[in-house]
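Researcher: Go.
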Amino acid sequence: MLSKLMTVFAPEAPDYGDDRLAIAGLMVRLARSDGTYAASEITRIDRLLAARYGLTAAEAAALRVEAEEYEANAPDTVRFTRAIKENVPLDERFAVVEDLWDVVLEDGVRDESEDALMRLLANLLGINDRDSALCRQRVLARRNPE
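Model: Structure:
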């Protein structure tokens, strides 16, 4: 009886196993980690989500909005990375790390808090520091082709 009442009155818990929401949530967490969540970062997240999942602009924005709430209520970062590690093969996680670097680099400033979080995220996703740096360099090369 008590368990039935709990299910009726308890809010629905987010699905921490959804890798799409976890990736979007990490993008939001990174963008917010320096204390500024700029419009350019929001636009970049929407573009990355649209490209990654073949979404329309409206669908990508809706996923980001859901991820903003998800990120704000997530008790820790490990839930995000665990969902990604369980659902995204290692070779595809390099692209995830590139997307995360793309968010970090969007505002043109590499903040210490962003760098620290990126180091943690890459390691939790099974990507070593050297490979994360290579991912960052690929993002920079795409942004500044010569």
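Model: Confidence is low (pLDDT under 50) at residues 1-14.
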